[in-house]
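Reading is simple: the token line describes the chain's fold. The lines below illustrate.

. . .
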Amino acid sequence: MKILAFESSCDETAVAVVEDGRRVLSDAIASQADMHALYGGVVPEIASRKHVEAIAALTDKALADAGVTRRDIDAVAVTYAPGLIGAGLVGLSFAKSVAYALGVPLIPVHHIRGHIAANYLAFPELEPPFLALCMSGGNTLLVDVRDYTDLTLVGATRDDAAGECFDKAARVLGMPYPGGKPMDELAQQSAGGVYDLPRASIEGHPLDMSFSGLKTAVVNLAHNAGQKGEPLDCAALARDFTRAVSDELVPRAMLAARKCGRKTLVAAGGVAANTILRADLMAACAREGVKLYLPPLRLCGDNGAMIGAQGYYEYLAGARADLSLNAYATRDIDDAVVAYRAQVRDIFA
């Protein structure tokens, strides 16, 4: 089964062709990172307009790269949530038109489910159940993946996402957007241990996280040093910041795996590309006898292939959408109301 998949939830326009949820035939991406770097972050209106400009030609490229024609497409999958609402609507509207024109099913896919499914493309042997640690610019979640479409949220950040904190910390340290890679490279230049940064805990909710205090601490350190004319060890601060993020994520992931009875841990999302975090996850899993799956760097960021992979399993589970499907800025990963609404519409009448 060949699925044409669309992803436009933030600042990457991505179109892919995926076969049977496991084989990537093509994965075309048009990044806007250089443009948004001028503003230090994503400008939603610009992102939406750039998606409009890129998506049609990118679709032709994805089909050509896959060596298929429109008639070979069996279904269309698209991100419907969460993300920037204007950006998401561009991909969703285009996907609707393609599905309608081709007369094939339209499959709605949750963006974070897609990030988890990226691992299916890299590791053919990977099957649920497992525990997923999802880390991106807009979301930080711990998810119990009981089956391909049976996912339960067990922990989440109460405020900022880990990826957002990397971007904001990088900005105050004078590094470009997106900040994840520059922060990672800078952190490699120091052993750290210079700055005492906070680690949050939520009373009564050991699997939940908070990153706003950490972000504020880094901002205040940088501003105070600048106001006093004192030197700031940027490399050490990047290292200590990354260590603080890891101390929030890794122990909670291991605790969640124990609580859910999982011996397999899957990492997902852009922050999963961080080298220090990857090393910490490998060390923790080795200590506790947990099998770890880390997606290759090319599949950590937003891409269309991950949407096609998850779209295949959503299709098998019966997920369908009609042309009334809307995009949503926020939606829980285990909330299937939108994804399955078209097929059970009478329940909501």
The first helix runs from residue 33 to 37.
